[in-house]
Amino acid sequence: MLEPWTISSVRSALAAKKLSARELAAEFFTRIDAQNPTLNAYLTLSPERAYAQADKIDALIASNKSLPPLAGVPIGVKDVLSTRGIRTTCSSKILENHFPVYDATAVERLESAGAVLLGKTNCDEFAMGSSNENSAFGAVKNPIAPDRVPGGSSGGSAAVVAAGLAVASLGTDTGGSIRQPGALCGIPAMMGSYGRVSRYGLIAFASSLDRIGPFANNVHDVAAILQTIAGRDPRDSTSTTAPVPDYTSEIAKPVKGLRIGIPKDYFAEGMHSGVRAKVEAGIALLKSLGCELVDIRMPHTDYAIATYYIIATAEASSNLARYDGVRYGLRVDDPTLIGMYRKTRGAGFGPEVKRRIVLGTYVLSAGYYDAYYLKGQKVRALIAQDFRDAFTKVDAIVTPTSPIPAFKLGEKTNDPLQMYLADIYTVTGSLAGVPGISVPCGKTPQKNLPVGLQIFGPAFGEARVLQLAHAFEQAGGANL
Ligand code: GLN
């Protein structure tokens, strides 16, 4: 296989005038035309916007002006991020014909840095799922093993990078939706701390958990994209004013002497033997780099899935109330107002979204609020405390990203609980608000499927997380 394009190879090819930004974009659209009918990873392409941006970059090159950091870099963006004038569906029938009137801040920042938006990527409907099979527009195939899922919910964003149909992409992570598909498709993928990246223009699933972050072919590119999209945005009051470090230079710092917490609670039964073997080899690799391994306990880990499915569904039921047939998207007419609501929402939402709205409405309802929602918030605080306690002893925490490698399409669609368990190692960090990356950690001996190693850092410790991931990658973590 050809070496994948990276941010630096794009930059040097453009600077050396080996090809123009327009030619590079055209090359990617050619690849997309060839592969997307099978993979179904892009839902909408944006060639006009891509070529207009590429021409701007080519004009800068022609006049010998300095190039912005992501000049000419072709990217895909998950279809839950608003893009002005470009269809944004959330992979839902209810938004099938939704054309936003503004851009998400993260998209705006990537384009200001010179990136070329190729199109919008498929995902689970409203980002609810772990396999991309909940998309109203069909499943995405894993480019590594086309009879298997790419993971979810940002399955399209992972697949386009892994298949060479974009140099990098944006996904969103509420309970694992960046890290888990990154692991299943064999590429690095990261969510920064809650508040690190503005959510303005992200169509909400669970607002206290939703985060935007990058997929790329190497950790350096993940760092470069995160650095571009991070930072305060007055249009999202939860975005932090904390300064954004220069992650691309921070990653080179040595990792010798860093203390790595290994939580026993994450290595319980239920983990695939191939995943266990590779993650153990990954941990040994970190040790060989001079990291100190420390056994830690995270005692509330067992409650994370239950807590997540209370809080995330409660927030979803509230956020999705806006799809009422009046303001956005689909409307199915009826002589009565309530009839119009029922028909619109009945026809517009898929089964998993309906299940979550019902669940979320239930846990918020009078009489059950204290028992479920309020209790869930208390347990969330305990899970966050587990992380804070751990970070008094260690610099980072290392776990598997997913208990299982990519599974067969259709294998878990009839069992939502089995599907929810795919997030068992990722939801804790989501509830705690800390940053986490998944970095390739070899392939299963049985079927040669990618395994991901997850690295958590303390809140706003992205630089440390990236440093470890970079050292791990440079030491050959992907080939264990
Ligand atoms: N798989 C989890 C869910 O279905 C997480 C989704 C996400 O992170 N958006 O909710």
Residue fraction in strands = 5-15%
Q: What's the overall average pLDDT, rounded?
A: 97
Outline the low-pLDDT stretches.
none
- CATH T-level topology of the largest domain: Amidase signature (AS) enzymes
What is the H/E order?
HHEHEHEHEHEEHHEHEHHHHEHHEEH
| Bound small-molecule species | glutamine
Task: Sum this structure up briefly.
This protein is α/β, with parallel strands linked by helices.
Report on this structure.
The protein is of the alpha/beta class and 480 residues long. The chain has three domains: 7-250, Amidase signature (AS) enzymes; 259-300 and 379-479, Amidase signature (AS) enzymes (Alpha-Beta Complex), CATH 3.90.1300; 306-370, no CATH class. Helices cover 39% and strands 12% of the residues. It has 16 helices and eleven strands. The protein has helices spanning 7-15, 21-39, 47-62, 105-112, 155-162, 179-185, 219-229, 247-250, 273-288, 304-319, 337-348, 351-364, 370-393, 416-420, 427-432, 462-474; strands at residues 42-45, 74-78, 116-121, 168-173, 189-191, 211-216, 259-263, 292-296, 396-400, 436-443, 450-456. The strands form two sheets. Strands 5-10-11-9-7-8 form a six-stranded mixed beta sheet, with helices on both faces. Strands 1-3-2-4-6 form a five-stranded mixed beta sheet, with helices on both faces. Strand 7, helix 9 (273-288) and strand 8 (292-296) form a beta-alpha-beta unit. Helix 10 (304-319) crosses helix 13 (370-393). The longest helix has 24 residues, at 370-393. The protein is globular. The two termini are 19 Å apart. The mean pLDDT is 97. Bound molecules: glutamine (GLN). Glutamine binds next to loops.
